[in-house]
Each structure stands twice: as structure tokens, then as C-alpha cells.
Amino acid sequence: MDGAGPLRIAWHVKLPLVRPALVLTTVFTIIGTLQLFAEPLVLNRCPRSSRSPTRRIWSGRRRSSASTGAQLGGRTYVCGYTFWVYKDYKRRRGYNYEYKGTHT
Hints:
Mean pLDDT: 76
Radius of gyration: 24 Å
Distance between the termini: 31 Å
Number of domains: 2
Helix content: over 70%
Number of strands: 0
Largest sheet: none
Low-confidence stretches: none
Number of helices: 3
Order of helices and strands: HHH
Structural class: mainly alpha
Strand content: under 5%
């Protein structure tokens, strides 16, 4: 790797390491997109669903408003802050997070 530029390092080192994650993300994205098209068919076969799956999908989207996103963001912030305080408390108490197993 001596003398390799940033582009060559990215192409020959970083990209092969990231490729499995990119493939998995692509597969999940495709599956999620296909599920969006299959949802009306599933809702039509459901015995308790309303007569129109489009109406049911619209009502579900209507409930997820900007306030829901703000609530989720707030909860995420509180959980992250709580974790940070707990981690800092453990660090100050002298807990060591390193692996303490036997080395062969």
C-alpha cells in the first residue's frame, strides 16, 4: 500500500470491506419496495380489514405525522443521554470494558 493514493486505497481496501454491507442494504431495500406493492393484496385477504385497502393504508399514513417523528427523536435523545450517563458513571467507578479472558 506504499505509494497508493486515496482513490486506490478506497477502491482496493475499503470497498471490498464494505461490499457485503452494501449488498445486504440493497437486498433489504428491494424487499421493502416489493412489500409496499404486495401490501394491498395481503390486506384484501385479511378477514377483519376494511373493504378498501387503500383507505386503510391512507389512515395509517395519516397517523404518522411530524409530531410522531418529534416524539421518536426525543425518545432517542433521552435513551442516548441515559446510556451516556450510565457509561460515564461506570468509567468513573473504575470498571474496565476490555476483555478479561485468558489468552492462549
